[in-house]
């Protein structure tokens, strides 16, 4: 059954243009870096610190959503990794804003 799902997934995957994949990778890495740097600077400026387990929970939650999207929307592996790198910092930012509002 799993083998049938893999075959169906491979048949439904569309070939991606290498130039578009490269541009998408650059965009994702740049966005991830900017969001992560701004998040770290905000945390240092406000003297608030996330716990290790909170960050681990956010990363696992983001990875779960990406794993579901990878199989549901037939994403390529590069798109799934890019989606994870976008979702994790944005989720951290929302968690930080929620923590700031609750103080």
TrEMBL record:
InterPro entries assigned to the protein according to its UniProt record, in alphabetical order: Ribophorin_II_C
Signal peptide: none
Transmembrane regions: 20-40, 52-74, 80-99
Domain of life: Eukaryota
Keyword terms, alphabetized: Membrane, Transmembrane, Transmembrane helix
Residue ranges occupied by any Ribophorin II C-terminal domain in the UniProt entry: 12-94
Coiled coil, from the record: none
Identification of the protein by name: Ribophorin II C-terminal domain-containing protein
Provenance organism: Entamoeba dispar (strain ATCC PRA-260 / SAW760)
């Amino acid at each position: 059954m799993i083998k049938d799902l893999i075959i169906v997934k491979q048949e439904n995957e569309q070939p991606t243009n290498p130039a578009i994949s490269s541009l998408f990778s650059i965009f994702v890495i740049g966005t991830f870096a900017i969001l992560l740097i701004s998040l770290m600077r905000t945390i240092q400026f406000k003297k608030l610190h996330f716990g290790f387990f909170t960050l681990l929970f956010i990363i696992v939650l983001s990875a779960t959503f990406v794993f579901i999207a990878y199989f549901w929307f037939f994403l390529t592996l590069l798109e799934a990794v890019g989606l994870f790198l976008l979702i994790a910092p944005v989720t951290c930012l929302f968690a930080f804003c929620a923590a700031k509002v609750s103080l």
